[in-house]
Amino acid sequence: QQPVQSPQAVILREGEDAVINCSSSKALYSVHWYRQKHGEAPVFLMILLKGGEQKGHEKISASFNEKKQQSSLYLTASQLSYSGTYFCGTNDNFNKFYFGSGTKLNVKP
Amino acid sequence: DGGITQSPKYLFRKEGQNVTLSCEQNLNHDAMYWYRQDPGQGLRLIYYSQIVNDFQKGDIAEGYSVSREKKESFPLTVTSAQKNPTAFYLCASSIAFPGQLMIFGSGTRLTVV
User: Fold this and answer.
1) Is it the case that residue A88 has pLDDT exceeding 80?
2) I need a labelling partner for A68 at 20 to 30 A (CA). Which of A25, A33, B33, B73 fits?
3) A–B: how many Cβ contacts below 8 A?
4) How many CA atoms, within 13 angstroms, populate the side-chain half-sphere of residue B113?
5) How far apart are CA A89 and CA A101, in angstroms?
């Protein structure tokens, strides 16, 4: 079942923060986060496997809630290079993997 | 350098023709995938393969075919039965199935003329 991402789009000024959410009605086995620049392939950011887990990658971090039904991606002090579309990917106990519909992030000077 | 190579980058097809998109990986990954992406849309799974000589339909397999005769290769054929094939096609691979840390190729943009 495809996870639900929100918001669909975000416009930020450089230095502002953003949060992107990824939710499922079922407990998830894992959550992956990817970023795609226009016309390019998605690039892997991070994977979360455990309920309550938090991970960071420079100023980009993510959390996975205790019930393993929601993950959030945090972008702190955004830079122009953060612009792109962010996708979460999830798989449930039936070993099916789905991508969310994406969140388009536009960071302006 | 290890990675996934997709070719060609741009492909134009006349209506009624079959075309084959190439995907080669040298990462020694067992699992490979084909996704379709339409403008402003997410990624929809066409076919996936967990192991050589085995593949499964994804959510939008109609009008497409694949083969997995070698571990490193997973070509996708877009047949004339696919009524709306213009899209961006992405190939990906992962160490195991499902979806463990996917590495994507740079994509093929197919246009029907």
Assistant:
1) yes
2) B33
3) 45
4) 6
5) 10
Give residue A18's identity as a one-letter amino acid code: A
Residue in A72, A77, A81, A4 with CA at minimum distance from that of residue A37: A81
What integer pLDDT is reported at residue A95 of this predicted model? 64
Integer Cα distance of A16 and A25 in angstroms: 30
C-alpha B18/C-alpha A85 separation (Å) is 31
The amino acid that residue B86 corresponds to is T
Tens digits of per-residue pLDDT, A40-54?
889 999 999 888 888
Task: Count H helices and E strands in chain B, helices first.
Answer: 0, 11
DSSP string over A31-100 = EEEEEE-TTS--EEEEEE-STT-EEEETTEEEEE-TTSSEEEEEE-S--GGG-EEEEEEEE-TT--EEE-
Interface test with B, best of A48, A96, A97, A103 (most B CBs within 10 A): A97
Quick check: B8 and B110 in contact, CB under 8 A?
Answer: no
Tell which phi-psi region holds residue B98, choosing left (phi > 0), alpha (psi between -120 and 50) or beta: beta
Are residues A101 and B98, on separate chains, in Cβ contact within 8 Å?
Answer: no
Please, are residues A71 and A7 in contact by the beta-carbon 8 Å criterion?
no
Contacts of A96 in chain B (CB under 8 A): 98
* B27 at A interface, C-beta within 8 A: no
Q: Give yes or no for B101 touching A (CB within 8 A).
A: yes
